[in-house]
Amino acid sequence: MDPTFAKFIEQGQLSVSNMVLHKYSQLGLTNGEFILFLQISSCLQAGKDFPDLELIAARMGVKNTEVYDLVHQLLAKKMLTIVPVSDVDGKKHDRYSFELLYRKLTALTENDEKKEVDQSSLLATEQVYNSIEEEFGHPLSPIEMETIDSWLKEDHYAPELINAALREAVLSRAYSLKYMDKILLNWEKQNIKSAADVENLQTNRRKSFTGRTNETKKKGNNSKPHIPLYRWSDKPDPKKK
């Protein structure tokens, strides 16, 4: 093995979640604070609970006082804490911890995911109004908008379910919210809550209809009178007695 590569391997690897890399700015960390986070994390993963800040300053190419200031900033932002720990011999000592930073990161990620869901829900809701307007061929009246709004907010019908009811109405050439409301109420009684449930219902109906049709055909064939096959060759010859 190449000596240079061997030294590279001996130094070990720093394991950092991409989540930290992608969201450190959203957490409120400056570039300098993030670099210090990486430096301290490297020491912690190497088993050094309380890293030498002067050594870290030398690695970062900055003054010691700058690193001390960055540490105080992380402590003030509650991203870094100093916690007491015990070693294998029961002796207590201090240790740097980024547990609060990870907690804030988790909360930030959950909040971002909630925003994405809310935005997706908003777009789906807007699409319901637009689809009904497009299929009905006219702008929705205030009363029609109130009806759709009640479906979404009071009855809690999923946008995809309302769209499925719209398709049923269009196929029946019934361009009416009253007709759609009857469909939705009927589905609610059958515990139909999603477009997938509607598809399953329709599939079962088709299977049931096909089964009844085949059964009717079978019964129809069985009800036909039996017509015996008469073979002229079996007719007795009157000359032969």
What does the secondary structure layout of this molecule look like, with pairings?
Layout: H1 3-10, H2 18-27, H3 31-45, H4 53-60, H5 64-76, E1 81-86, E2 92-97, H6 99-136, H7 142-153, H8 159-171, H9 177-189, H10 195-222
Antiparallel strand pairs: 1-2
Sum this structure up briefly:
The protein is mainly α.
Shape: elongated
* Class based on secondary structure composition and strand pairing: mainly alpha
Give the distance, in angstroms, between the N- and C-terminal Cα atoms. Answer: 115 Å
Question: How can the largest sheet be summarized?
Answer: 2 strands, antiparallel
Series of H and E elements: HHHHHEEHHHHH
Count of strand segments? 2
The stretches of 5 or more residues where confidence is low (pLDDT under 50) are none
For the biggest β-sheet, the strand order reads 1-2
Strand content: under 5%
How many helices? 10
What do the pLDDT scores average to?
A: 84
Measured on Cα atoms, how large is the radius of gyration?
A: 38 Å
* Percentage of residues in helical conformation: 55-70%
